[in-house]
Amino acid sequence: MSDATPAAAGSANAAMQRYWNEVAGPRWVERAEIQEARNIEVAQILLREAQATAGERVLDVGCGPGATALPLAGAVGPSGHVTGVDIAEPMLGLLRRRVAEQRIANLTPLLADAQTHAFAPASVDLLTSRFGVMFFADHLAAFRNLGGALRPGGRLCMAVWAGIADNVHWRIPFEIAVRHVGPPKPQPPHAPGPMALGDPDYVRGVLSGAGFTAIAIEPTRFDVIGKSAASEAELAGVLGPSGRLLEEKEADDAARRAVVAETTAAFAAYAGGADEIRLPGTFFLLRAQWPGQP
Q: Is residue 45 situated within a structural domain?
């Protein structure tokens, strides 16, 4: 699989492709180290539960700049291989630089739409993702396609966001933004976005409909770890549900500043000590198996 595969004008996820290449992706890359540090607990839990071992072939979906793909490459070793697939060129560009700088030979960045890309059938042992699979236009089609890449008996281990009510770093700034600019336009249930897979019953239906077995969905608590209330508020002003709402409403600078200021004040209650703030969050740890014997 080549890292030159286009994520393509005809992508089934064209709207998300534009958003992650033109808006969220560049903003994320500018703050990559901060973003990865704040979600380090999720990465650690996912890597522990995925149990990648030497010689395995792994497909990391929505890999971004490599927060999980890079350590997975270390876990599978020279006899194994990791393919990190993402629809966002800015994020993959950073991953390519990291791969080159660290001289990693067993990690291939792949620019592609994982919902439709023709992965080699039965070619991987493990599907992983840290917050990368909520953005598909058609979740059932995407997981059917991904399942086809698994070898018989292969496994899935992924992290997806729970709802906004269970994630303080989203809920507080979103409620503040709504007070300033009004609510977002109504969206269809499970529309592509961070919380699209926040309903366990829906997720179970998608995975079983796609052909997976032994499905387990575990609510998992963690803390978003930020440097300060102000830095977390600044992030909320450009990324996540509040950032997307401010974009949708074309909020002016004054409204944005007011949202960030109020969020900073609200987040101050979660200061965890010098140079740290901890915002309680929840994700769902998904586990499943592809039918057949390894």
A: yes
